[in-house]
Amino acid sequence: MTTSLKLLSLMDENGVAIDKLSSETGLSTRTVKRYLRELEEKGLVEQRGELYALTAAGLKLKKSLQALRARREAPPYIVTDPSSGAQIPLSFRNYKQLLAIIDAGLADKSVLEEHMRKYLATWVKDSLGDEYLAYLLETGAIKNLDDLKNYLETILKALGDQA
C-alpha cells in the first residue's frame, strides 16, 4: 500500500495525532507531516489543532479502499457505442481489466471517455463500492483516460493488484 493511503487508512473523521501515526507506521514525524501535507493538498485530510482528520472526500476514499479489498469482481460493465447503443464485444469486472483495456487500446478512446463521463460513476459506486472514484468522476476531477489510468494504477498498487 502506498504510504499516503496507509496513513489515510489509519485515520478517521475525529482526528489522529501525528505522533500516533508515526508510531503506527514506523515513519518519522517529519515524514508523516510531509505525507499529511500532500493529503491535505488533495482535500483528503484537514488539520484541526494538533490532530489531522479525514475530510468527506478522505472518508469516501477510505471506505472505497475497504470495499475494493472485500470485492474481487463485480457484475460486468458492458461497453456500448454511445451514439448507437450497440454493444461492443468488450466488458470488464474489475479495475485490473479496465486498466488493461485502456493500456491496450481495445476500444476507441472516444468511446471509453464517453462512458467515463456518463456511466462509469454509477457502476463503480454500485458494483464495486468505490464512492471516491464516483465522486471524482461526477465532479470532473478525473477529466480524461490518463487521469482515470493514474487513479486505477494507484488503487491497484495500494491493494496489491487485487481490485
Automatic annotation (TrEMBL):
It comes from the Archaea. SUPFAM superfamilies: Winged helix' DNA-binding domain (SSF46785). This is Regulatory protein, MarR. Coiled coil: none annotated. Residues 1-56 form the HTH iclR-type domain. One of its GO terms (molecular function) is DNA binding. It comes from Desulfurococcus mucosus (strain ATCC 35584 / DSM 2162 / JCM 9187 / O7/1). GO terms for biological process: regulation of DNA-templated transcription.
